Amino acid sequence: MPFKKLHSDINEMLEFLEITTPTPFQSASIPVIKSGANIYCVAPEGSGKTTTLILTTLQKLKCEAVGTAPRAIVLVEDRNKAAEMYDAFTKYIRHHDLRLYNCDEKLHIDVIKSEVFEGVDILISTPKILNKLFLLEGVNTMQLKIFSMDDAAFLEQKTAHNAMMLMTQSIQKCQFVMYSEKMHPFLKRFENYFMKHAKVISVKGA
């Protein structure tokens, strides 16, 4: 069964990449993410979580650049994960005008702030750098539509957890999607904060 009801540009890119059939996890999760609800997406490695994150982000942004403020944020554990996510996104948006930005920790925070200010649609960052941007008022969240957390087990770390709690307090009307291999108890506790009324999509096999 092919991917259903995705933006025509996404379907064209899937065809170009010869991705024709969604995984069981993608079939279960993509329609629910498209609904706009806060969601915990739980599935083992190899289930297609990263591709799901990319496709639903592009769908949410309608594959077009708008304004200057980020409309999607992707939070990752570290600099290496950020680079991997950037490369994964690039495969899907290379022929579009969507502006993708990786907040590389090797850059000075003032450089990152100025480059984000020039205009970004999708922002990829670690908690450390994103929190610095928030504290410096270097990222405008007024247009933010979707905030995704990749392999969210890293949020158990105290510094990442605290940064996440501080950042989400200032975000209004945004969909939060948390991806993880397991439904860790500490992740469920976020329901009391920014993951309100969250649904759980759990697929055991890849």
From TrEMBL:
PROSITE patterns referenced in this protein's UniProt entry, alphabetically: HELICASE_ATP_BIND_1
Record flagged with keyword Signal: no
Pfam families in UniProt: DEAD (PF00270)
Domain Helicase ATP-binding per the UniProt entry, residue ranges: 30-201
Key words of the record: ATP-binding, Helicase, Hydrolase, Nucleotide-binding
InterPro entries from the UniProt entry: DEAD/DEAH_box_helicase_dom, Helicase_ATP-bd, P-loop_NTPase
GO molecular function: ATP binding; helicase activity; hydrolase activity; nucleic acid binding
PANTHER family for this protein: DEAD-BOX ATP-DEPENDENT RNA HELICASE 50 (PTHR47960)
Protein name as annotated: DEAD/DEAH box helicase
Originating organism: Polaribacter glomeratus
